[in-house]
Specification:
The complex is a heterotrimer. By secondary structure, chain A is α/β, with parallel strands linked by helices. Chain A is about 35% helix and about 25% strand. Chain A has a single domain, classed as Beta Polymerase, domain 2 (2-Layer Sandwich). By secondary structure, chain B is α+β, with helices and mostly antiparallel strands. A three-stranded antiparallel beta sheet of chain B has the order 1-2-3. In chain B, strands 6-7-8 form a three-stranded antiparallel beta sheet. In chain B, strands 4-5 form a two-stranded antiparallel ribbon. The longest helix of chain B has 28 residues. Chain C is α/β, with parallel strands linked by helices. Chain C has one domain: 3-Layer(aba) Sandwich (Rossmann fold), CATH 3.40.50. Helices cover about 40% and strands about 10% of the residues of chain C. Chain C has a five-stranded parallel beta sheet with strand order 2-1-3-4-5, sandwiched between helices. In chain C, helix 5 links the parallel strand 3 and strand 4. The radius of gyration of chain C is 17 Å and the shape is globular. Classes of the chains: A alpha/beta, B alpha+beta, C alpha/beta. Chains A and B meet through strand 3, strand 4 and helix 3 of A and helix 1, strand 6, strand 7, strand 8 and helix 11 of B.
Chain lengths: ~180, ~375, ~200
């Protein structure tokens, strides 16, 4: 099973049971087809997305697993953040449909060929897709919800530590000065 | 005569639903002709919140991702951070982790039993099994200070030493539960009224179930002995002896029988843990300070076997003290959509709660 | 097991003080009956739902206070909002609450209903339940233990027996414009039908 992958792809060994390999958007469907037919990695178990905003790309991860559930292989595919569509895998794997639907909502990635890209978890969301890095959840909260007065733990930790140190210092100095 | 299709919502406010979610059903008489799952009632944006928190801050909220069984979340989080940061955990801490995970599994199975029996109208089973689960929660309280959320398995080890006499009390509880399991057999699993409702309902079968990404009791109920504790071992499970129970029928009753046997296996594992746990040893590794605790720019995937199936975390670091991306993969996402929707078609309306409970669908882990 | 029993015992002993003498005997009797038959609609909106089964079953056995779970809002007196509410859930909670018949009360369970709790910076949970619905009793904690929930019920019993005009359902009628405005601000165009129509002919 591993020999085929070793021969044809640049395999990255992450752990003895977890491998990764990089593909481009154009190669993805072909590679998936090759791997599912020639190796035992034939199940899609997760579809991940990481937003590398400083590099202007999304990194999609197609996690494949084998029938014995003993090894995992991750196909990584980077796409530009601005024109974001991917081919849908719904015809290859039934479970891809709902995973793509979730990523569509959370990152705004379009999947060509998936008919079910309507609301998943959010209802009537009209802001930036929330999992993108530029979406600031605290700013959204401040704009849309009211906090109860008296809630004080919403503080900057660094500043508070500085303040407390300064307070402890002045408390120390006062008795010696007096 | 014209036959009319009516559409109803089963949930989110419904006693027969497994949490805050709903299934939209098209009914022809009592028979379901189409089912669509709706989620999102519990979406909190955990993955966004974790991107804004340091590792120690994120640790406190991960256990809230799945409520009935929070400990696999903590274990996953700890395993992923340790793998990325290159931390080794002591043997004693690993044993304590296995113990916590198995206790949580037992508790989750007992809670499932209450839901499953409630869905066929057997109220007594719930009164018993929730009581027994509470005894496990009492032990958790002694160990961690919390009944439901423990925040105990921390990257680098576990947070607290075992209290005095804890293993003896655990051992006594296992003796008690062992006896109770026989009583549950008589009360619930061998009960004709449960068998009549459960046998032949919600059948999942065939070779393609493996390709569709199912896990847990769904696979074991139709004859595939898949269990990550054996197939892709983590912690110390490769050193412990246990069987993977399977059934071949693939219906609700088969999944119930699998869970019945799994409870006995959990007790067996816990007894080995009690016997083998080293008496001395560090439970916590020395970790970097709060703001210096960073993850390299790498990613990894870890998975544990929860009481419902494969529970995995994908985690990517970016060199800072925040986690760049943590994505949760619970078994319920696939089970609630690509399994439940076709499975309900052709079933009676009264079987919806029965089937949902037997798949162990847990909405908070679907949408996080 | 005597958890939760002690506050209840005390409330029985302090009974005389808690009842206002302004009530007539009949009113007092009705309030007493109400306080001892609380039908609960447990809407598991969040994590709090996991501590409900222990509270309602044999170990903590809240039925001894006259608390029973029911399946439909039409039969319920008390709505337990058990945890954080996303806007999507809140719409359904408001709908369930408005379907209940009066007198009706709300218990908010968990820190997240009070001030957002753990999810203070989450874009999809509300931070203050009492902006949208009149909450009669908050039980804090994450999670609140069953004992805390029982004590919440005992306190609510006192409130029911006091039969004051401060009760949530009366507030919801008289200050409906305030609650409605908050709901409209959050939900925008997806707002629910107006509740006012239900009590159009009533003398407020």
């Amino acid at each position: 099973m591993m020999s085929y992958l070793e021969e044809h792809y640049e395999l990255i060994h992450k752990t003895p049971r977890l491998f990764a390999l990089h593909v481009t958007r154009e190669q993805l469907l072909d590679t998936l087809h090759q791997i599912t037919t020639h190796t035992s990695f034939d199940t899609l178990s997760q579809l991940t997305c990481t937003d590398w905003i400083e590099e202007e790309r999304f990194e999609l991860g197609y996690m494949l697993t084998n029938a014995l559930r003993s090894h995992n292989l991750m196909l990584k595919c980077s796409i530009a953040r601005d024109k974001v569509t991917m081919p849908s895998l719904a015809l290859l794997f039934a479970q891809a449909e709902v995973m793509e639907r979730e990523l569509h909502e959370m990152f705004g990635i379009g999947f060509e060929g998936n008919e079910t890209l309507y609301d998943f978890a959010l209802e009537g969301w009209c802001d930036i897709p929330p999992m993108r890095r530029e979406f600031d959840t605290l700013a959204y909260v401040n704009a849309h919800y009211d906090f109860r007065e008296g809630r004080e733990d919403n503080l900057d930790v660094k500043e508070e530590i500085k303040k407390r140190k300064a307070a402890a210092k002045s408390a120390k100095e006062t008795p010696s000065g007096a | 005569m014209e036959r009319k299709v009516i559409t109803i919502y089963h949930g989110p406010q419904h006693p027969g639903i497994t949490g805050n979610m709903s299934v939209e059903l098209d009914l022809m008489g009592e028979t379901i002709t189409r089912a669509r799952t709706h989620v999102g009632y519990l979406h909190r944006g955990f993955e966004k919140l974790i991107e804004r928190r340091t590792i120690i801050q994120a640790f406190t909220i991960v256990c809230r991702i799945c409520v009935p069984e929070p400990d696999p979340n903590e274990a996953n989080f700890a395993l992923a951070v340790e793998r990325l940061a290159g931390i080794e955990v002591s043997e004693r801490a690993s044993y304590i982790r296995v113990m916590v995970l198995e206790m949580a599994r037992l508790g989750a199975q007992l809670l499932w039993m209450a839901g499953q029996s409630g869905s066929v109208g057997l109220g007594t089973v719930g009164q018993w099994s929730i009581y027994d689960r509470d005894l496990i929660l009492d032990l958790f309280e002694q160990l961690t200070g919390g009944r439901v959320y423990h925040m105990y398995i921390y990257p680098g080890g576990v947070r607290r030493e075992l209290p005095d006499g804890f293993l003896e009390r655990l051992s006594a509880l296992l003796d008690y539960l062992q006896k109770r399991l026989d009583a549950y057999d008589r009360l619930f699993f061998d009960n004709a009224s449960f068998q009549k409702r459960a046998i032949g309902v919600g059948v999942v079968r065939g070779e393609e179930v493996l390709r569709r990404g199912f896990s847990g009791q769904v696979l074991r109920g139709c004859g595939f002995a898949r269990d990550l504790r054996r197939d892709n071992p983590y912690l110390l499970y490769d050193q412990l002896e246990f069987d993977i129970p399977t059934q071949s029928a693939g219906d609700v009753y088969a999944r119930a029988l699998v869970r019945r046997a799994e409870m006995r296996e959990s007790i067996r594992i816990l007894r080995q843990v009690i016997a083998q746990m080293p008496e001395e040893g560090a439970i916590m590794q020395k970790l970097p300070k709060h703001r210096k605790f960073t993850l390299p720019k790498e990613d990894t995937y870890v998975a544990v076997e929860s009481a419902r199936g494969e529970f995995g975390y994908y985690m990517a670091g970016d060199g800072s003290e925040m986690i760049r991306r943590m994505q949760v993969k619970g078994p319920s996402l696939i089970h609630a959509f690509s399994l439940l929707e076709p499975l309900l078609v052709g079933e009676e309306l009264s079987n919806v709660a029965l089937i949902m409970n037997s798949l162990g669908i847990c909405p908070p882990e679907i949408e996080r | 097991m005597d958890e939760g029993f002690i506050p209840y015992q005390q409330s029985l002993e302090d009974e005389e003080q808690s009842i206002k003498s302004t009530q007539s005997v009949i009113e007092q009797a009705i309030a007493w009956f109400r306080a001892h038959s609380m039908f609960v609609l447990a809407y598991g909106t969040g994590c709090g739902a996991i501590e409900m089964p222990p509270t309602f079953t044999s170990r903590y056995d809240i039925e001894r206070l006259g608390v029973v779970g029911v399946a439909t809002p039409r039969q319920a007196d008390i709505l337990i909002v058990s945890g954080y509410c996303s806007p999507k859930t809140l719409k359904r909670v408001i709908r369930s609450y408005e379907q209940m018949s009066e007198p009706k009360y709300i218990i908010g369970l968990g820190s997240c209903t009070i001030n957002g709790g753990m999810y203070w910076d989450s874009y999809n949970t509300i931070k203050k339940l009492d902006d949208f619905l009149p909450v009669d009793m908050y039980v804090n904690g994450c999670m609140p233990r069953p004992e805390a929930l029982i004590e919440g019920f005992v306190k609510l019993q006192e409130k029911i027996r006091a039969n004051s005009s401060e009760a949530g359902y009366i507030q919801y009628r008289t200050r409906y414009a305030h609650y409605r405005a908050n709901q409209e601000r959050l939900f925008g165009t997806q707002v629910q039908p107006r509740y006012e129509e239900n009590f159009a002919g009533m003398n407020l």
